[in-house]
Amino acid sequence: MTHSHPVIIGVGRTKFGEHYEREPEKLIEEAWLKASVSAGIERKDLDAGYLADYFLPITNKIGIEEGFLSELTELHMPMEKTRSFSSALLNACTAIQAGRYDLVLVGGVEKMTDRWDKIRDDLMLLEDPWSYYAGSTPEANHELMLREYVKRHRLAGSELETFNMALAQIAVKNHKNAVQNEYAQYQREITVETVLKERKKAQKPLGLFDFAPVSDGATAIILANPEKAKKTADPPVYVAASDSATDYVTYPARDDITGFIASAIAMRNALKKAEITQNDIQIAELYDQSTFLEMVSLEDLGFSKRGTAWQSIAESLNDSQRFYRVNDKELYVNTNGGLKADGNPLGATGGAQIYEIVHQLQGKAGNRQVTTGTDLQLGCALELEGFGTKAYVHILKRGD
Amino acid sequence: MSSEPIERRVSYIGDRLRGSRCSLCGKEYFRPRDYCGTCGRKSFEKMQDMDFFYKKGELEVCTLVKEPTNKFTRLGPYVYGIISFDDGQVRVPGRLTDRLLTNKEIDVTALEGREVVPRFRRRYAVEQSDVIPTIALAFTLAEEYYPHQEHQIVKPQKEYERPGIVGYGAYTSKFRIKESAVERSVPFIDEDSITAAVEAGKMAIIHSGIDPLMVAKVYVGSESNPYAVKPIASKVAQVLKLGEEDKERGVQTVDAVDTEFACKAATCMFKDASALVYYPSARGHFTMVIGTDNSQAAPRDEPGGELDFFVGYGASAFIFGMSDVIAEMEDWCSCTSDTPDFWRRDQESYPRHGGRFTGEPAYFKHVTKAAEKLMDKMRLQPKDVTYFVSHQPNVAFPIKVANQLGFKEEQFMPGIQVTRFGNTYSGSSPIGLAAVLDIAKPHDRIVMVSYGSGAGSDAYSLLVTDQILDKRNRQKFTIRYQAENKSLEYVDYETYRRLKLGM
């Protein structure tokens, strides 16, 4: 492992869900304090902070968010705000690799339940204004992409049934994983019947249990220059690659509406930088805003060929496995429960993905620790902004 | 509260579906752009303006939205999807409108692949005090009620000595309420007098074959403008691109004005519109007069509720000019008196009535006065007139007044449309005129007399030309087509009130 890769020396998070009584700054405080404890650092050790929230100033009518962290750290350090945790992490990695900073706090926070009444309007308007004007909803784009996928790959009859069942099994798998995750929003199992019942109620291919919830929460990590860090975690986890790509904000206007080209580009570049192939990755945190997106992301990231991910999922989950068998290898996906069950507080979500991969790579994931034939070495996280408008891929690698 | 600049920008693009085409590679884009993504820097200043307003699209994929975002909830469940134009070159998001969906399952697969036409509608619901957002990302199926029609500009071929009608269009909605023998047009929930005015104007442009940039002035008569202050005519001018367009400023070189005089708000401007195109420096130009109303009536159990049995919804647009005229304006006569038979005070939702249908001192007096005076002036006998059209608040009045004036059934019945669309207020006698023009032969003479409460009448004599036949095949969306369409949807009284109230 080349040591120019930034190293994650501490992680922290809150429980995801509704934090009715707590202010947003209390959430980020909890995450940051946990991360600093796990990193064994003091606030004065920090050189800079990168903080993410998707639309906290809109939902919570607050001032400059960097002020929260500034008050908590009592440091007048440089601080920048991004929309997603992965964006904050990418910026932090760049700064460390450029030699600008040596120890950086990366955080994310969101408080969506404070504006329950208008959250879907805000989400849709930010995600894709012209689709919003035309009457779209946050769920509608997922449904359209699913329908296009089914048409493109000519799924019908028993194949279509298996496909629909595979998506339901994704939700069941993610809920099962979340049971072992003390921070998850939904620590309870569900059955395929529950997923199907909700679809039937909605008379749609995706129902309530196919979609990630609205959540509050915060996450934080401490990122360091490995050569300057006083001590690293044991074993250390490096950010082997950090990449992103963008696409049109108007989903219908894109050339391909059956997947996210931004995810594919970000992954391709990240793999190149990490000097590995997707087959080397053993654990992945994917952005399952819907069960369908978890499936299609397997294809976007190159784990499965176009039009085949649902088959791998169906075969793997039928055997009650916790992993997907793709390319004759085991791939563990969303071991924390994914956005579906762990929760999806937008600006903080990417931090929960990193939190999970770090714990898994270190073998410290407790009851949800995945076991593979070989030790876990490589994991990746995919985070999206909007409906595939921006994609971030981070590849994490365990050091010795 | 709505943002004025954002509303302006969104509706400027969305009302007409403006876009760009790269003149180098031909790639098309929804929304104007200065730069082609494929061709890069060399495309700068090589992008052509275009729009999808007169095009036909294809609904590629769709889904049923049952839990919309807040501003769309009043629509009820609706179909939302992706529409492509020009063989998939451009894709836009869109909502299918004019569909009253219940919560029972609908087969969206059956809708996919179908051809759709962009319509002009309210975008979503806003506060009563806000700017009303509009958009053309609302579509209907091309094979249903509203057909796709190309807009082709036809070079003027013949000049006339006197001005006249060069094209017209009428628009009524797909929904109807039927009570006893009377059918009435009911707006869909995203329609109002502004949207109907634009649709009628679009039809008139298609029918006339004129270049909209040659329109010098547009008049819109209405008594149901959803704004107390803000003209409908400015929206019509912008969306239909009337007059010369200054692309830099997004401004049309055209005059636009709203007029108000109850049900004669539009017809009173026919002579002004004709006079304007006759003015020497306006030669070659056209004027457009639109009458549009989502005719107002209080619910039946409230004061003024007697109107609720008769009100309709619709608009008509007439283009006047000196070239390629289909009906020459021979002469006119108007009369006015201060008769308070029908009124609506500021801030009141619904008009009030004298409590009875004020036929004698109001309708009959003015209609007969204007008609008789015109016919005297022109030395016309009833037999010299092929068709007689009058304002039609109900079915009894126009029949009675036509009989009083000595006209026969075959002369006045073709123009009586109130039994099919209801009283469309400013559009009432003009829709009758449109129905007659739909069937008129060259050299037919039409006498039309409007009536507006308050009160007054305008009488016109029109002489049909040979060119009416050339233009007739350009318009599929005729009065008869709208009245006898297989896609009409009938609603009950509760639904009618809900739809009429709008979003």
Description of the structure:
- The complex is a heterodimer of chains A (400) and B (503).
- Chain A is α/β, with parallel strands linked by helices and 400 residues long.
- Chain A has helices at residues 24-39, 56-60, 66-73, 85-97, 119-127, 129-134, 140-152, 157-179, 192-202, 261-274, 291-300, 309-318, 338-341, 346-362, and strands spanning 7-13, 48-52, 79-82, 103-111, 216-224, 237-246, 283-285, 323-326, 329-333, 378-385, 390-398.
- Chain A has a domain at 7-116 and 215-224: Thiolase/Chalcone synthase (Peroxisomal Thiolase, Chain A, domain 1, 3-Layer(aba) Sandwich), CATH 3.40.47.10.
- In chain A, strands 3-2-4-5-1-6-11-10-7-9-8 form an eleven-stranded mixed β-sheet, sandwiched between helices.
- Chain B has two domains: 4-17 and 52-141, no CATH class; 161-501, Peroxisomal Thiolase, Chain A, domain 1 (3-Layer(aba) Sandwich).
- Chain B contains twelve helices and 24 strands.
- In chain B, the strands form six sheets. In chain B, strands 15-12-16-17-9-18-23-22-21 form a nine-stranded mixed β-sheet, sandwiched between helices.
- The radius of gyration of chain B is 22 Å and the shape is globular.
- The A-B interface holds A 117-118, 120-121, 124, 128, 130-137, 139-140, 143-144, 147-148, 151, 202-204, 250-254, 257 and B 10, 14, 29-31, 60-72, 75, 78, 80-83, 90-95, 105, 108, 112, 123-124, 133, 135, 137-138.
